[in-house]
Design brief:
Elements (H helix, E strand, L loop, with lengths): L3 E7 L5 H13 L3 E5 L5 E7 L1 H13 L6 E8 L12 E5 L2 H10 L3 H7 L4
Parallel strand pairs: 2-5
Antiparallel strand pairs: 1-3, 1-4, 2-3
């Protein structure tokens, strides 16, 4: 199976009600999602089937987050490291540093830096 992924930036992610909605969507679309919540910027990464990733992105758009930006459109994962199956569901981190460490662990740090305009 080819996995797809996407990266979303928002002004912030603080609403627990919206996070609960995203947690439910991650399970429903059978994908892995990682959120940087609690402050600015809000960052979301999702990985799964093409349909699941597209549906999750549409769900995030529907929640009308302030300054929603699709930093990296849904696309197939090109690196071999990103091809392993992740546990379905939503995880949260509190800092950009923790988010970067999670991307590095997945072999996606260069992709993430480009998408975030850090590189």
């Amino acid at each position: 199976m080819t996995f797809f992924h996407a990266l979303i930036r928002t002004h912030h992610i603080t609403s627990r009600k919206k996070v609960a909605h995203l947690r439910k969507a991650a399970k429903q679309f059978d994908l892995y999602a990682l959120l940087r919540s609690g402050g600015c910027p809000g960052i979301m990464y999702c990985k799964g089937s093409e349909h699941g990733v597209n549906s999750f992105v549409a769900t995030v758009q529907g929640l009308r987050y302030k300054d929603f930006k699709l930093a990296s459109r849904p696309a197939p994962i090109e690196s071999d490291a990103g091809q392993r199956r992740e546990q379905t569901g939503l995880s949260e981190v509190e800092s950009v540093q923790e988010f970067a460490a999670a991307m590095e662990k997945r072999g996606l740090i260069q992709w993430w830096k480009r998408a975030m305009d850090f590189a």
